[in-house]
Amino acid sequence: MFDRSCExxxxxxxxxxxxxxLRVRRSPLGARIIFACDTYDAMTSQRPYRAALSAAVARAxxxxxxGTQLDPQVVEALLDLLGSPDAAAA
Length: 90
Hints:
By secondary structure, this protein is mainly α. It has one domain (about 25-90). The protein is about 50% helix and about 5% strand.
């Protein structure tokens, strides 16, 4: 059986998360944490093709992606760990 992601549906362990009626598989927690941290690092690091984004802009982007591309609980925890962008500048 296939869901709309074209991956075989499995009956392993936990039920898949659902969003807008589609079956969505939950990535392991460690993978979701690394993905959110890597996303922040990629946005705030200088790249040959673009300047680094400010911490405030990167935070706003994380919040905007929470619940769609990023796990909202992981984003909340990451923002707590990062602290206030004002405190980092001091």
